Amino acid sequence: MSKNSTAGYDTIPTTTYLPSESSPKTVIARARYHTEKFIARCRPWREFFDYTTITQPLSYEDINRRIKQNLNYFQVNYAMGILLILFLILI
């Protein structure tokens, strides 16, 4: 690298953050929006409980891959199940 080269050093990216309003209406609206967005990613429960699609894994790597893929695909279903169990425990 030469001494005269200043590529990448001449500008500093900056991001300005606008102060968000913290009124109760705004907070509730944002929470509702994010909750609806999260729940919209829920997979069908029939697909979640379909035991006919389960086959024996071929190797340890296959087990790891399947677990990661399943957790990623059904993450909202698992979260809702855990929340339901926690709710029932609190009752």
Describe the protein's architecture and organization.
Helix content is about 55%, strand content about 0%. The chain is mainly alpha-helical. The longest helix is centred in the middle third of the chain and has 16 residues, at about 25-40. The radius of gyration is 23 Å and the shape is elongated. It is a multi-pass membrane protein. Its main location: membrane.
How many strands in all? 0
Order of helices and strands: HHHH
Level of helix content? 40-55%
Radius of gyration: 23 Å
Strand content: under 5%
End-to-end distance: 66 Å
Round the mean pLDDT to the nearest integer and report it.
Answer: 81
Shape: elongated
Largest sheet: none
**Low-confidence runs:** none
Structural class label: mainly alpha
Count the helices. How many? Answer: 4
List keywords for this structure.
single chain; 91 residues; mainly alpha; 0% strand
Topology, element by element:
Layout: H1 24-39, H2 45-48, H3 60-73, H4 75-90
GO cellular component, one term: endoplasmic reticulum
Transmembrane segments: 71-90
Membrane topology: Multi-pass membrane protein
How would you sum up this structure in a few lines?
The protein is mostly helical and 91 residues long. Helices cover 55% and strands 0% of the residues. Keywords: Membrane, Transmembrane, Transmembrane helix, Transport.
